[in-house]
Specification:
By secondary structure, the chain is an alpha/beta fold. Helices cover 40% and strands 15% of the residues. Bound molecules: beta-D-fucopyranose (FCB). The site of beta-D-fucopyranose has 12 residues, from loops.
């Protein structure tokens, strides 16, 4: 990419920040909310670093008015948040909790009044525990329950909310939750994980016509976590391994949504690897499912953090060609490489290969070990650098013709980072958990300037 000193974004470009219900709300059992799988998981000893839970988190359930005021202060055009299904429907289906409906309804009103467009994610990983007890995502009935929930939510907020995201990162729900066991519900079963992935996609497809019926102006999409996969060397084995990883993470979700069905190489891979037992893998796919999943979307939401460099384990190191790809030094606190060019490559591929009508970056950001300085400020210069470089990469993609409509920084404020608990801070706003005090970091002030000017200036290259 040519060096550039500044980039101005198209008029009307959406500047936002994102959060999710379990990560910020707290109030896990207040006002009639039901238990979710993340409540159950974080209350199980040994599952989350430090024994942290989302019981209180950022206490956003009680402090949302002030949090909206902070968003306004930053000049955000949009705010992406998720709804806690169990706050609305404590047992997942059936009895509605009016206090839950009220909470989200008032939040939406306050956002609109502040001139901030709500982008609502229906599902960001916190399945009602009652539905997990009934089989969870590996069970088809959960997809049916999701449609009822989507109907209720879009029926309630559809007069005011026009941007809807059905799911956040179905890969993580399915694979990290049901195969790797690092997330709720903590299972380790490939059969379950593949069925879960399918039912998440099916629930996505089934719910879209329902949301559109309740909200005529709806723009509906889904958010995927996507990463480019770079072979560690030009060897055939490394290239094959990288393509396979691409299939598992990216194409398994992109292809069915784009009406291409499941990628044949990965269907075969799962079949081979799990032999006899999985000889009948994919028998959870019923007639018409793939058509339902392929229902047109208005936009694809992209969560991008880093690329992945892949080396085949089938070939001993010294048989591979000499390594030609090196990771950038200085990863983030998550151990993730900082690789802005990957965002540019990914957006280009998504547009020129898949042709979704529009793209949004629904998450991008970095965890760093922030410190409150003597002046009381958080000088998170590394985060500013990270955001700036990724925005420059996004601008290059727009210049190349990619219909990128907006960008959401992850995250509005520090929050509960899943299995890492509160040990990783991603926020533009620092949260002092014991006092719940919010302190905007330098990156928040920087982002405010970017938004106001609709322009990113990269002094480092000038
Ligand atoms: C994404 C999640 C989000 C947050 C970031 C760091 O995978 O969607 O909730 O945890 O990672």
């Amino acid at each position: 990419m040519p060096a550039s000193t500044s980039a101005t974004f198209p008029p009307g470009f959406i500047w936002g920040a994102a959060t999710s219900s379990y990560q910020i709300e707290g109030a896990w059992n207040e006002d009639g909310k039901g238990e979710s799988i993340w409540d159950r998981f974080s209350h199980t000893p040994g599952k989350v670093a430090n024994g942290d839970t989302g019981d209180i988190a950022c206490d956003h359930y009680h402090r949302w008015r002030k949090d909206v005021a902070w968003m306004k202060e930053l000049g955000l055009n949009a705010y992406r948040f998720s709804v806690s299904w169990a706050r609305l429907l404590p047992r997942g289906r059936g009895q509605v909790n009016p206090a839950g409906v009220d909470f989200y309804s008032r939040l939406v009103d306050a956002l609109l009044e502040a001139g901030i467009e709500p982008f609502v994610t229906l599902y960001h990983w916190d399945l009602p525990q009652a539905l997990q007890d009934g089989g969870g995502w590996p069970a088809r009935v959960t997809a049916e329950a999701f449609v009822e929930y989507a109907d209720l939510l879009s029926g309630t907020l559809g007069d005011r909310v026009t941007h809807w995201i059905t799911f956040n990162e179905p890969y993580v729900s399915a694979i990290v939750g049901y195969l790797e066991g690092r997330h709720a519900p903590g299972h380790t079963d490939l059969d379950e994980a593949l069925a879960a992935a399918h039912h998440l996609l099916l629930a996505h497809g089934w719910s879209i016509p329902v949301i559109r019926r309740n909200c005529v102006r709806a723009e509906v999409g889904i958010t995927l976590n996507l990463s480019p996969h770079t072979p560690a060397s030009p060897s055939t084995a490394d290239r094959a391994a990288a393509w396979q990883r691409d299939g598992i993470l990216n194409r398994w979700f992109l292809d069915p949504i784009a009406a291409r069905g499941y990628p044949a190489d990965i269907v075969q891979h799962y079949g081979q690897h799990y032999g006899q037992h999985y000889g009948h893998a994919m028998d959870f796919v019923e007639a018409d499912d793939l058509d339902a999943i392929a229902v047109p979307i208005d936009f694809l939401g992209v969560n991008y953090y880093c690329r992945s460099v892949v080396r085949s384990s089938a070939v001993p190191e010294d048989e591979n060609a000499r390594r030609t790809v090196f990771l950038n030094p200085n990863p983030t606190e998550m151990g993730w490489e900082v690789y802005p060019a990957g965002l540019h490559d990914l957006l280009g591929r998504l547009h020129f290969d898949y042709r979704f009508p529009a793209l949004y970056i629904t998450e991008n950001g970095a965890a760093y070990r922030d410190r409150i300085g003597d002046s009381g400020q958080v000088e998170d210069l590394l985060r500013i650098k990270y955001l700036k470089e990724h925005l420059m990469a996004a601008a290059q993609a727009i210049a190349a013709g990619v219909p990128l409509r907006g960008y959401f920084a992850w995250s509005l404020m520090d929050n509960f980072e899943w299995a890492h608990g509160y040990s990783k801070r991603f926020g533009l706003i620092h949260v002092d958990y014991p006092s719940q005090r919010r302190i905007p970091k330098a990156s928040a002030y920087w982002y405010r300037q970017v938004i106001a000017a609709n322009t990113v200036v990269d002094y480092s290259t000038s």
